[in-house]
Write a structure and sequence with these properties.
By secondary structure, the protein is α+β, with helices and mostly antiparallel strands. It has one domain (16-317): L-amino peptidase D-ALA esterase/amidase. The chain is 20% helix and 28% strand. It has 5 helices and 16 strands. The strands form 4 sheets. Strands 1, 2, 3, 4, 7, 10, 11, 14 and 16 form a 9-stranded mixed beta sheet that branches. It has a 3-stranded antiparallel beta sheet with strand order 13-12-15. Strand 12 (197-200) and strand 13 form a beta hairpin. Helix 4 packs across helix 5 (296-317). The protein starts with 22 loop residues before the first strand and ends in a 14-residue tail after the last helix.
């Protein structure tokens, strides 16, 4: 695994860039804040996707269905800015086109860049959101060094625990983690902007989420949901956790679709409630395909594990912003 840098916490858990051939770049707009995160696989990677939330904002997800023609992607974009943020993918396409990277069509190479967005327009001035230039600059920042986590990229304006209202929510962010079993590597990156609480599956403790009325402790949404009716559909379409899981296992598109499905188990372990009508939860999966002879079930199980680890890291490393304290602020 990659060694931690000064931008990571001392207990860095590895990340998406532990897989050779994958680079990660963030663009963070501190004016609001908001931003986008780019995963580049310039040599191409077989990919899949699974969308579980009922309010998604996505681009080119149909292309990833196993029966469709194009076999490899060249990048994936996770972005803030709601549907406006999908424009950041066009900047990634422009960056890759300049390098003559893409699907070999008759008249041009066409970069394949699926994308998904989360809603962070309630933080600061909503007219400031990621666009074409943001995606391009995230590509310029892309590196195979350890992944920056916390208040960066797509996680810059992310918040969690919003089912009791924004005034009782906390700061979310970007998290990443990886696991290695001999030569097999499975890794994840998430941007956590969840409606529910964030729970550490290793001990069952809530580490961030909806706060009590005085804002000094955690309300525990599991208990709240069992005892209090919530009014209507709160904040429809204003949340969403986005993720990318990656591996070096040689697997086809159908198998990668299954990996994306299994990865959502990691969200369910670490976010409660999850996959709500107000969420657009989406996980992309991709593989560089350099390792033969792997077990699909094992890869999927490890993918769920690293997703849950990355979710927890996203809130442990995040820093508070006005109105949205972090995990460390409540300690």
């Amino acid at each position: 695994m990659a060694k931690p840098t000064t931008t990571q916490s001392k207990d860095y858990a590895g990340g998406l860039t532990d897989i050779q051939g994958i680079r990660v770049g963030h663009f963070t707009d501190s004016r609001r804040p908001t931003g986008c995160t780019v995963v580049l696989v310039e040599a191409g990677a077989v990919a899949g996707v699974d969308v579980r939330g009922s309010a998604p904002g996505t681009r080119e997800t149909d292309l990833l269905k196993p029966h469709n023609t194009v076999q490899k992607v060249h990048g994936i974009v996770l972005s803030g800015g709601s549907a406006f943020g999908l424009d950041s993918a066009s900047g990634v396409v422009a960056f890759l086109e300049e390098k003559d990277i893409g699907y070999p069509a008759k008249h041009s190479r066409v970069p394949i860049v699926p994308a998904a967005v989360l809603y962070d327009l309630g933080i600061g001035q909503a007219s400031i959101r990621p666009g074409h230039d943001s995606g391009y600059r995230a590509c310029q920042n892309a590196t195979q060094r350890p992944v920056q986590e916390g208040n960066v990229g797509a996680g810059a304006g992310a918040t969690v625990g919003k089912l009791l209202g924004a005034e009782r929510a906390m700061k979310g962010g970007v998290g990443s983690a990886s696991l290695q079993v001999k030569d097999l590597v499975v890794a994840a990156l998430v941007a956590v902007n969840a409606a529910g609480d964030i729970i550490d599956p290793t001990n069952g403790q809530i580490v961030a989420g909806a706060r009590s009325k005085d804002g000094k402790s955690l309300a525990n949404m599991s208990d709240v949901l069992k005892t209090n009716p919530l009014p209507g559909l709160i904040g429809q379409g204003e949340y969403t956790t986005l993720g990318v899981v990656a591996t070096n296992a040689k697997l086809g598109k159908a198998a990668m679709h299954k990996i994306a499905q299994m990865s959502h188990d990691g969200l369910a372990r670490a976010i409660n409630p999850v996959h709500m009508p107000v969420d657009g939860d989406t996980i992309f999966s991709l593989t560089t395909g350099t390792l033969e002879g792997t077990n699909l079930g094992q890869v999927g199980a490890l993918a769920a594990e690293v997703i849950s680890q990355a979710v927890v890291r996203s809130v442990l490393i995040a820093r508070g912003i006005p109105g949205y304290p972090s995990h460390s602020d409540l300690q």
